[in-house]
Amino acid sequence: MDAVIRPERADLDQAEIARQAREQAPVLWLLGKVQSGKTSIVGAITGDSAAAIGEGFRSCTRSARVYDYPAEAPVLRFLDTRGLGEVGGGPGDDLARLTERAHMVVAVARAMDLHQDEVLETLRAVRRRHPDWPVLLVQTCLHEGYPDDRDHPPYPALDAAPGLEDLARCRRQQADAFRALPGKGPVVVVPVDLTLPDEDYTPVFYGLPALLDALEAQAPGRLAAILQALRRPADDPRARRARPHILGYASAAAASDVVPVLGVVSVPAMQGKLLHSLGRIYGVPWDAGSLRAFTAALGSGTLAGLGLSHGARQLGKLIPGYGQTAGAAAAAAATFAVTYALGIAACTYLSRTRDGRDATEGVEAAYRQALREALDLARRRAESRGAAE
Question: By CB neighbour count within 10 A (0-12 exposed, 13-18 middle, 19+ buried), where does 264 fall?
């Protein structure tokens, strides 16, 4: 209970949770010149502000920086190579390290900018190492090719829109240069224009659904599963904000539960910190009474199952041979699913509490539905990790 109400007393610090989550989080490498629109893409995917993203990037190599989303328990990491297009810029000797860190590379280029030599040179080096990797080219700032006072055409009509012939010519020429990259992996091109409301273009995130579709289609299994999970619709903005936290904490808990015995302490502590974090998002602090009401709303069968299955998983990990391989993997998958389901059920409870409704109604059903979703997600994460190995 202390981990929920007074997380500072829990025997597990936040930095360790973030470290565990980072080790599990896939890395999306955004490769493009300065001012090409990379921060706008991060903002459109995460919902974070440009200021928060700018302050959140941290150096990870001499030539690159990384943005963790969300910072306290990352479920997705964005890698940005600094200095492309500038004198002395580019990854240089860092290229091998960056290539090993990334799970997918996304090239970002302003649609009217045909001078992409350094980006293409870096991508040629990447494709020589990984010829099967897909390259997603995101063409940004489309409005720079519009006549004055012109708004976006309907997205499906962009290529044939009257008056936008110069933009179409530049886009084709730029795309052809990227399609000439070596390697067998596909080169997929997506035009977007991610603007601010005061720029008066509608919609503000022009082409974002097509970008998310392309990311999910081209990403390896684990990254695709995360992107799909983040994209699930939610009417409540707090629920949308809570989802990456739930996924990040579930990943961290699963990682800690691979180690025999350690999960006995670390998993309940992480689940408690997750509930505390969700309470902050919903503006509903937990106390002893609300925590008892929530656990009761999960149902006695659910609680008994949680305790017994967690204990059985810890014992299973002690079996020589099996415990350190299949037993540990099964324990991690189950812990991911249970932690995710607890988080979703807590969102139901907190949302209803905030709205002044019967807080316990629907909590058990939300837990069971989320558990089914999470088991499928855990299976896909495990399959993609196995394929990568």
Answer: middle
Residue with tokens 């829990």: 10
Residue with the two structure tokens 């007393």: 9
Tokens of 131: 């010829």
Q: How many CA atoms, within 13 angstroms, populate the side-chain half-sphere of residue 357?
A: 10
- Whether residue 166 contacts residue 62, with contact meaning beta carbons closer than 8 Å, is answered with no
Torsion of CA 41, 46, 49, 51, to 10 degrees: -80
Rounded CA separation 99/96 (Å): 5
CA 370 to chain centre: 18
253: CB partners within 8 A, 6+ apart: 20, 266, 267, 270, 271, 274, 335, 336, 339
Count of other CB atoms within 10 angstroms of residue 93? 9
Which helix (H) or strand (E) segment holds residue 381: the answer is helix 363-388
Q: 332 and 254 in contact (C-beta within 8 Å)? A: yes
Element (H, E) at 36: none
Q: Where are the alpha helices (DSSP H) in 144-287?
A: 165-179, 208-218, 221-231, 237-256, 262-282
Q: What's the token pair of residue 324?
A: 């350190």
DSSP 77: E
43: nearest Cα among 35, 51, 33: 51
| Tens digit of each residue's pLDDT (9 = 90 or more) over 66-83 | 999 999 999 999 999 876
Distance, CA of 135 to CA of 284 (rounded, Å): 43
> In a 3-state reduction of DSSP, which class is residue 329?
helix
8 Å CB contact between 261 and 369: no
Cα 89–Cα 95–Cα 101 angle in degrees, nearest 5: 125
**Cα–Cα distance, 239 to 351 (Å, whole number):** 8
Average pLDDT estimate for 106-114 = 97
Q: Could you count the other beta carbons within 10 Å of the beta carbon of residue 326?
A: 12
Q: Binning pLDDT at 50, 70 and 90, where does residue 211 land? A: very high
pTM to 2 decimal places: 0.84
Instruction: List the alpha helices (DSSP H) in the chain.
Output: 2-5, 14-24, 38-46, 50-56, 95-101, 117-129, 165-179, 208-218, 221-231, 237-256, 262-282, 288-297, 300-316, 326-354, 363-388
Beta bridge partners, 69, equal: 76
59 within 8 A of 293, measured Cβ to Cβ: no
Helix 208-218 to helix 38-46 angle (10° resolution) is 90
